[in-house]
Predict the structure.
Amino acid sequence: MKNRPLLRFTIFWLCGSGMACVLTGWSLLWGMIGAAACLPLVLRFLNIRGWPVLLLLIAFIGGAVHWQWNDARNYSHVPEYFDMTADEIHGLNGEIEGELVSDVRVDGDRAGFEMVISSMTADQEMHPKTEDSDPNHVLSPRTSETLKLPSRVNERIIVQVRLMEESEQQTAASWKRGDKLTLSGSWALPGEARNFGGFDYRSYLKTQYIHWMFKVKGADSVTAVPPEGWERISILRWTDAARQLLGSAVDQLFPEPHAGYMKGLIIGMAKDIDPGTYGQFSQLGLTHILAISGTHVAVYVASLLMLMSWLKLTRETALTVVLFLIPAYVLLSGGSPSVIRAGMMSMIGLYMAKRGLARDSLQIISAAALLMMWWNPYFLLNISFQLSFLVTAGLMIYMPLINRIFSTWPRSLAATASVTVTAQLISFPVTILYFNQFSLLSFAANFLLVSLISAVVLPLGTAAMMVSFLWDQAAKPLAWIAIQLNQLTFLSVEWMNDLPGFVMIWASPSLVWIAAYYAILYALLHLLHQRSASEKPPYIHAEEEDTAPLDIHGRTAAPTRSMWGTVRPSSRFEGTDSVNPVQAHTHNRLSLTAHHALPVQTAEVGQGSLAALGASIAWPEYAGAFTAKGAGYYSEVRMSRVQRWLCGVLAVSFAAGLWWAYQTPRPAGTGVVQFLDIGQGDSTLITTPEGRHILVDGGGTIDFGGSKHSWKTRRDPYEVGAKVVVPLLKKRGIHQLDAVIATHADQDHAGGLQAVLEQIPVKRFMFNGTTSGKEKFDQLIHTAVERQIPLFAIRQGMIYKPDQETSLYFVSPDFSDELDDMSGGVPFHENQNAASVVFLLEMAGTSMLFTGDMDAAAEQDVLYAIQDGSLAVPMSDHTGQDFQGGGISIDILKVAHHGSKTSSSDAWLRYWNAKAALISAGVNNTYGHPNPGVMQRLEATGSRIYRTDQMGEVQMRVKDGRVDVRYKLTEDIKRN
């Protein structure tokens, strides 16, 4: 690092940007002061002195200031010009004009795109704010006034069009980037995270410089005018047309799901991939090959240079042509951060090769990162950006250290294994941070399939697509071969996913843990490959490329032909900034020593070596795996006793860190009840003091479309279980559920449990023992049976004790003997609300009553059973009362049926006399829940009311009879 000034500058810039991202206001100032105080220790450790210190300080402060400056400018101008708050604008009807600035995505009954607005009107009383406006002038109701935004305003918004007829799909598809649009609809704020750790769509859109959504009903409400004259000349518009043309060619060659898969693989149209296929690949950590990435750019560059070599073009001409073709490919592939990174690195490498300059891979990747961060600091928060740079830099640094593991393997297999293991180790922390799962089969899947897909299927599919434009019949055999290989890939992926016990669920780790992971991993691998001072690395000899490093005095050594770099016969590598600076450990504690030298190439190439040059430019990070001696180059290592002892300590620390991160985080001896906000429905996660996990209901998405409107079905429809419940369970590190309780078969309670059973191990499934006769609930029961999950039909009087401090006393349903005969399968029961599973949770000295969707009649039946003594369940001593008495007092009442008027009778509420009540309801739901009458009765009992539609997720921590409450949409913590 000492002789890589650009690398140092970039790291400090990223650190400054990261601190400004995490901290704001006074906390940022104190953070900067703390960092400045620690800076001398860091500089001393890195052995950096003199003027570079000032440069690094400027980089750190510059990164923070640049982030803050960019973030301060990222706000919406719409409230300013409407002179209204954002909440007041939300739901406001109006009309907007602007330019379409993205491609149009049509999916079922929805079309979506982005546009930049130039003017807007509102159909509501408002006061537009202008410099010369009369402060006393107010528009009369139901009038509108047009607001022309100044040219400096670049308000980018998301538009969602709900299509009313099937024919409108073609109308929406005809809208193109650059069209002038006029739309009538309503303004909407993007959704915010309503659960702790949930996805925050509003924050995500802010990183895209988008603050508003505009919802339109029907394509008739959109008027599109194509651009005229010079405005028709648009590179991005042409790019969209080219992508659509290529996508159509793929659709004609491949049937589904192969068409969507190949479009993602070849063109980067990841949204066209079948959701089931994407999910299968995601579970094995293979999603990086389903969209255009750095590997695709590398194949593209290497292929182009190989083609130039076959065409006998001069070296300078070939490099120039490819240099100008790279941006075209980046645009054509969609321009994701990983593609931009690879494209920039390739362009820098080609330029340096053209100018005859030595190429240092770490310096090149630093330049790419710095340029991208300067252009858009929010790239730092992009998962694609993070994974692309981490894996690429990790391959450069870590892979030479891992090569020795495969020293006895053949060189080609050893190189592939080394790349696979390194990439998996580097991407692991980021994978569990964002996706909260990791398959132990990911190593095998990537080793076996990535090479097949990248080296065979990708070229075959690309060739078939290109040939189809010339001769369709000639392309079909190529497509047929690709389809057979795809079938083999799909079957392999499905088979590996079906193997039980290999998918591990991880809670999201902290940034400190991630930093410690990389540091310990590097230190451990570094020590395992330490070479004694007397050992000297042998020469590396290859035939592809001349390289010539400079010695420490600046003299040029005699060039040795090598694809990746020249290794001189000395015990250490020396160099200057103009070449790969690799020095001995004694000169720089963090420098890269000889045994893991990074690729350095000069531009001097021999005749016919363009293909090798293309490989070295396109895959600089793979240099350590393809040396002439293969992966066994550093096979002879001797360590001292101290080094062996230190390796043991690091290995134990590494294993202990993994074990600690894998544990489900929970306060010791504390129970937690988490009422999730899943919209209009119910879902509650109960964690007992001893770490048992119980899920009560899973929400669900109700489909009002019906089979007659099949055209409305979206490719990946929103389903609350898969999109909300399961991700939250994984993010919180729930490895398995000790029990799943479906209170009844209604879709808004049981629908989301299908995804839960498919993705989370479940030990037992409890329900009311009946079915609604609906297909989705029957499928849920079938899934439980298929996965050999024990089924329990709950009846009044049953007790479930998950641990010593927790008991569930079931008080309903009571079917008597009418449903005891289940020989014919699960019996049908029409009134599922009345048959809801109702139980009293006694945990850590507190009591909570869960009521499902029980109605007033069921409430009365339970009260009768208590009064006549047929329901006798003892309460905890903290109540001081008998369950059979004339009334008790519980801590929390889960209000039945989302606060519907059909439940929560006055007698029911007075009997339980709850200190607090929880209502789970969706924001602005069409049912009017909770009912005002129910709210009045709850207030009359003196219960403190918590509502998910107003507060988001509500969490209650219980210990020693005390309940601490927090909710997502405020930071207040209340204690009962």
